[in-house]
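User: Working on a comparison across species. This one is O-antigen ligase-related domain-containing protein from Brevirhabdus pacifica. Can you predict its structure so I can line it up against the others?
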Amino acid sequence: MTAPAAMFSAPAAPHGPARAARSGPGAALLALLGGGLALALSGRPLLAVAAVPAALAGLWLLLNPFAGMTALAAFSQLDGFALMLSKALPLSAFKLLTAVTLAAIVIEAARHRTWAGRPRPSAVVTLSLCFACWLVVSYLVSDYRAAGRNHLIGFLSTILLVPMLALTATSHARVRLLILVVGVSGAISAALVILETLTGIRIIPHADPADIAAWRGQVRSAGASAYNPTTAAHMVLASSFVWILLAIEGRQRRALCAGLAALCLVALAMMAARSAILALAVTGLVLLWRYRGRRIFPLVVALGLSLSLAALPFLPETTTQRFAAVFQGANTSDRTLLRRMSYNLIGVEQVIRHPVAGIGPGAYPTVYAGHEYRWYPGREQGGRQLHNAYMEVAAETGLVGLALFLAVLLTAFTAVVRTARAERDPQRAALARGLAYGFGAFLLASLFMPNEDTKYMWLLAALSGQLALTAGRETMPRPAPAPAPQTDPRRLLARPAPGDRT
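Assistant: Here's the predicted structure for O-antigen ligase-related domain-containing protein from Brevirhabdus pacifica:
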């Protein structure tokens, strides 16, 4: 080839390290090897040994966005383990994993241009993004922006789970796997609750040790969660219904599912969370009503009674005392009941004063600790969240925010209920129904706790909406084949013309 021709010809493909460096995974691998070598030469070989597997795991997550989403789903309940990892990292392990998963989604979208032709987002995703936008609007018009800034950032990052799950769990099988991850993480947390309660040894650290409070000498366990024991109990409650429905209606490993359901129920008894036990009782009655008149009804009753009897020996004495305190009225010695009355009274007053945009995300603890409400019953000096997810959303984001929040939850809940009813495969129907009952129980328990900004709330909503969406894609009728051209029988019997003969 002449020199002028060589100038306009395509350059030769690079080989070796140059080619690897131009590809995303190759560049990351070279950077990984270089970083490990630098740490080893700097006299820190142990750090180099630990950094290499961690970097390899990060590289694997960058190439597999669904793997990152699966880890996020697990850490939504097992956030105590994430807190342990965060102590060895410069930032939160959950935020780091979220950033890596987002980067993996961007890389996947760049590699596969067909993502641009994907179906439009579900109603749950759209409403979640609308609620996130309203959070920003409410924050901008708030008088407590300094107090609510960190809360807003955390809330928005939590809502981000909804579109991330929609972009990664694109098949019905993947959504079903994430539902099982929810159930398994609940069983792991329940096992840790039982272990900590029986041994008295704290295994998982917590972000706020004051949340793990002793009530009349009984220290309550939060299992594998970094949240307070009551919120942790709500998450175990949702997981328990996944296993209960799989044990009743499933066709695979029913004995194992029944054992995991019993594990979760025993842990709920030990956690002594009144709201979780109340939600369990109400949802259990709804489940019994559903099975009335069916052949399976005696089995359901027997399973419920056996699980309840199995949990009774593990029921702490303080649990009955906490329920008895409810009926003592204003003379109750349980100040948490008095505080809950004050929470809601203050919340109603804020809704009346700021009905449209509320007082701003994360502003309620500041208002609660104000001088104006110092004489309210059970009130503490420090700031506290309103222990009612729906009332707190109304107080902080106004009636518009409450309407959007309820729209997300009700849309997701009705979608998963319809999916469970329409599913013909028994195993899939049992899994969908377990998610529906678990989500419903969690929503009911949220009347007594500020669960609106927890990762678990938005994970359940995202799973419910995505399960309905992917199930609809699989059951869409295929286009009918084009009919074969019909030939007139008279033409078959007619003699060919002289010009048609070959």
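For your comparison, note: The chain has two domains: 25-115, 124-320+335-473.

User: Helpful, thanks.
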